[in-house]
Amino acid sequence: MEQQTNLYFTLPLLLLLHSLCWSQRSNPDDERSSCDRCDLRLSCNCSYDGFTRVPVVTDRALTLDLSFNNITMVTVDDLTGHRQLRALSLHGNRLAVIHLSAFDSLWSLEELDLSDNQLTALNHKWFSKLGALQKLNLLNNPYSCLGSPPVFQGLARLRTLAFGGPALEELKIGDLSGVTQLEELTVHANNLTRYESGALADIWPLGRVTLSLHNPFLTNVPLASDVLSDVSYPETPLILEDLHLIGKETVQPLYASARRRVRYITLRNVFVSDEAIVNFLVVFNGVPLTCFSVDSVTLTGEGRWTPANWTYHKSFDEFFIRNIVVLDVFHFVSFLNLGFLLQYPRKVSLINGKAYVMPCQTSGLLKNLQYLDLSDNLLTDMTLKETLCGGHSPLTDLRVLNISGNALKSLSMVRWLVVKLSKLTHLDLSRNGYSSMPLSCSWPHTLRYLNISRAKLTAITPCLPTTLEVLDLSNNDLKNFYLVLPALRELYLSGNKFLSLPSGELFPNLQTLKIQSNTLNMFNRSDLQLYRRLQNLQAGQNKFVCSCDFVPFLQSVIKGHGDVYLTDEEESYVCDSPLYLQGEPVGQVRLSVVECHRVLFVSVSCGVALFVAILVCILLWRLHAFWYLKMTWAWLKAKRSSRRHRGRGDSEALLSFDAFVSYSERDASWVENFLVPELEEPRETDEDLVNHRRPRPLTLCLHKRDFLPGQWIVDNIMSAMERSRRTVFVLSENFVQSDWCRYELDFSHFWLFDGHAGRDAAILILLEPLSKDDIPKRFYKLRKLMGSTTYLEWPQEEERTGEFWRSLRNALRGEEDDD
Question: Which range is the signal sequence, renumbered to this chain (predicted)?
Answer without folding.
Answer: none
